[in-house]
Amino acid sequence: MPPIENITTLRVRYSETDQMGGFYNSRVLEWFECGRTEITRKLGVPYSEMETRGLFLPLVETHIEFVGRARYDDELRMTTRVAMFGRARVRFEHEIVHAANGAAVARGYTLHACLGPDGKLIRPPAWFVALMGL
Fold first, then answer.
1. What's the rounded Cα separation, in Å, for the pair 106 and 8?
2. DSSP letters of 26-50?
3. For 40-74, how does the pLDDT look when each residue is reduced to its tens digit (9 = 90+)?
4. Residue 1's pLDDT is what?
5. Of 8, 13, 5, 4, which Cα lies nearest the Cα of 73?
6. Which CATH number is 23's domain given?
7. Considering only CA atoms, which of 116, 109, 111 is closest in space to residue 56?
8. Main-chain dihedrals φ then ψ at residue 40, nearest 5 degrees
9. Could you read off the pLDDT of 4-47 as tens digits, one per residue?
């Protein structure tokens, strides 16, 4: 089965730019979060419902490669894919490109621990594994 993925359209807002006119680098983590929450919403379980069901996914590691530029009002397309990693972790991979021409802007991943309501590591619940197609 191919990995589950979602495409999110973003537009660089003025507040996301720096003095050099490009997007400020930390914004990519916020965009990755948008991709992550939209993929679970697309699959029918918004992140808020995951927490209600007792699954929490705190960020434990991230990696970002800045490979291009984006400026105010540029329309971007972000592809987010799901991949399992380890027994109590989930990895989301992201790629951001310009919507107009596909030119790469950034790519990377976020790695999340699976925690129960008590804050302790747990294996991903069966419903979550099935939802993610893993």
1. 14
2. THHHHHHHHHHHHHHHHTT--HHHH
3. 999 999 999 999 999 999 999 999 999 999 999 99
4. 60
5. 13
6. 3.10.129.10
7. 116
8. -70, -35
9. 899 999 999 999 999 999 999 999 999 999 999 999 999 999 99
Per DSSP bridges, beta strands 89-98 and 5-11 are: unpaired
The structure tokens listed for 131 are 């939802």
Look up the domain containing 121 and give its range.
5-131
51: left (phi over 0), alpha (psi -120 to 50) or beta: alpha
- State both tokens at 21: 């006119």
Please tell me the distance from the alpha carbon of residue 93 to that of residue 60, in angstroms, as a whole number: 14
pLDDT at 79 over 90: yes
Q: pLDDT for 94-130, tens place per residue?
A: 999 999 999 999 999 999 999 999 999 999 999 998 8
β-partners of residue 98 are 76
The residue type at 134: L
Report the number of distinct structural domains present in the chain.
1
Distance, in Å, from the CA atom of 26 to the CA atom of 46, rounded to the nearest integer, reads 24
